[in-house]
Design a protein that fits this description.
alpha/beta, Rossmann fold, Helicase, Ruva Protein, domain 3, 2 domains, five-stranded parallel β-sheet, 12 helices, 13% strand
């Protein structure tokens, strides 16, 4: 599975990652579609990709080029590694058959030679971009192939997309078994991420936690990446590095207040 450029190589097991894992497990167990909803910066895409990889599933991200039924089928074929020169000439019905063929249950051979079947897992990110007919086709793939399907989208964009043709979208989304919202960083999440980035000192962790809980995962990791550069690789990240990074990268008044110990 090819990793998108914006996804880090490793992941810290935050509460958001735990929720994505639980929802993927639920979808595979019951063979029903489930949904993850997250605001920008919640680490949604990173969690989705790493969970899909760990579970031997497939991950894809919807774009403007794949928002129609035909574009969506083409994306699923590419995700499965079955895209060839001839694929772009195929009719939509043939593309659908190719998708059904790949995403049907896998046949597994046990050590004793017996056969068993297991559902595939498909993780589809940025589903707010999908048109309603394409979303219906995606759910039809899940139903026909009896596979695990985890769809995810941005909270605000999902709401905006659904304003038009609300009745149709309500019908489509009624077929989704369960939905979970991803939380922002907790104190434990901030501390785990800080440890992974080699943060040193209780005063540094105190500032890091307040920053993370005031912003989001993306801002937190960007702060740590910038602070790491300020260390020149000679020491771990200390409070002074975090303070300097906040001064440079986060000039907003509310974040500057975090530099005061009274803001705790």
């Amino acid at each position: 599975m090819i990793k998108p450029a914006n996804i880090p190589e490793t992941i810290v097991h935050t509460e958001a990652v735990k929720i994505v894992q639980e929802m993927a497990d639920l979808s595979l167990l019951l063979r029903q579609p489930v949904q993850i909803i997250g605001r920008p910066g919640t680490g949604k895409s990173t969690a989705l990709w790493h969970v899909a990889k760990a579970m031997g599933g497939n991950y894809c991200e919807i774009s403007q080029a794949s928002k129609t039924p035909k574009g969506m089928f083409e994306l699923l074929i590419k995700t499965a590694g079955r895209w060839g020169y001839h694929s772009q000439r195929l009719a939509i019905s043939t593309l659908a058959d190719e998708v059904y063929s790949y995403y049907e249950q896998r046949q597994l051979v046990a050590d004793d030679g017996s056969w068993s079947s297991a559902p595939r897992l498909l993780v589809v990110d940025e589903v707010q971009t999908l048109e309603a007919p394409a979303f219906r086709e995606l759910l039809r793939v899940q139903e026909k192939c009896e596979m695990g399907l985890l769809v995810a989208g941005n909270a605000e964009r999902l709401a905006g997309t659904r304003k038009n043709d609300a009745a149709t979208w309500e019908q489509v989304e009624s077929r989704i078994l369960a939905a979970r919202y991803l939380p922002g960083p907790s104190k434990a999440d901030c501390e785990s991420i800080g440890s992974a980035h080699n943060v040193e000192g209780s005063d540094a962790y105190d500032l890091l936690v307040r920053f993370g809980m005031s912003t989001n995962f993306r801002a937190l990791t960007q702060l740590l990446d910038f602070a790491a550069r300020l260390t020149a690789g000679n020491v771990g990240i200390r409070r002074v590095h975090l303070e300097n990074a906040i001064h440079i990268t986060s000039p907003k008044t509310n974040l500057q207040k975090l530099l005061s110990s009274e803001a705790a």
